[in-house]
Amino acid sequence: MNLLNRYILRELLKLFLAVLLVISAAFVIQRLIFLTEWSMHRGIGMLGVAKMLACLFPGLFLTAIPLVSLFVMVVVLSQLSEDNELVVMMSCGRNLLALAKSVLLFALLSTLLTAYLAFFLAPNSLRWFEIVRWELLQSKSEKALPTQTFVEFGRDSNIYIQSKGEDGLNNLVIYQAGNPDWLWSAGEESENYIFARRGRIVSKPGAAESQILLENGVFISHQQFPELDQQVQFERAVARVDFEGAEKLQNRLQRQMQAADLSRLIAVLRAPKSKSQKSAKSGGNILQDARVELSQRLSQVLACLLLMLWGLGLGIKPPRTSRTVSYLLGALAGFGFYYLNVVFKALALKQMMPIEPALFSPCCLILLSGAWLMRERLAGREPLHFLYQLDEYLRQWRAEKKGR
Description:
This protein is α+β, with helices and mostly antiparallel strands. The protein has helices at residues 3-40, 46-82, 85-91, 96-138, 246-260, 262-270, 273-282, 286-315, 324-349, 355-378, 385-403; strands spanning 150-154, 157-165, 168-177, 190-203, 209-223, 228-242.
């Protein structure tokens, strides 16, 4: 690689890393606030929050890298065009295709990174996130729960612990909204309270619930319709407190583990049609889910490479013209690409279009429009000349208005 291509590639990589760093910092700030609030109500420490946060980064990068790559190409090439560096390079005998080698290499690197994320790291990270979250919820032990404060322990369930000692929890107050499967079969419209001297929390391995072993307490239940009050004293009792959204969490964990297994998805596609239909009848359209998952991953990887055409077509502009038009078009192109992804995926899931043509339609649109832009560039024509003229007119109008 010659000196000019190395220079362009170095500028692309520097800006690429800087933008990813900024996006990562913003993502950490936004997610950290949400996860910290979520963990405080469940007795989970900052180490657990950090584990869950780390599992979310591959999914962020999978979505961000194609868009960041497009943005970086537009910014760097626009800067080179505005500073007349591209004009100097071409005057030295370099044509557009020769200068595009560094952009192509940058696009290939980002495509390989996207492929690794799409097929391996991102699906596994979502599975790790659900596993970590599951383990943290199951590890709601006596050490994790704070004292002298009400903690949300499950859906419509709160627990208060006055103090903790070697023999367990002391002076507990447990509140549970109506739950017919709770202690002493309380009604669905009831409000239930337990006051106990001592208690121990025991989590069942592999189950989405915890049992609280209680000693020396009283159970009070108030039901409005029909009005009924119950009060039961006990020496020993067992109260079950379910985790919030346990069934939903189990189903999501199962789906993520299935989606992360690339060999399983391929096996589903290669299975006989009769067997796939039988699996679909027994619970969900497994074949359709596998086709959507694989097609979406492939389209993300292919789009990352094809966005190079948009980067070259929108980044190269006439000298001494504003970069505003290039930046605006690059932002609109990135937003339009992801919007089309959402629209065509919805059409595929609703069976309004075949799965593969729907999910690869955004890539086809990028290829056709990008090829047209490149053909115009190679022919020496400026396909976006009217936009630069409009931008120049607006700049002159603002300058005249300011000078008055």
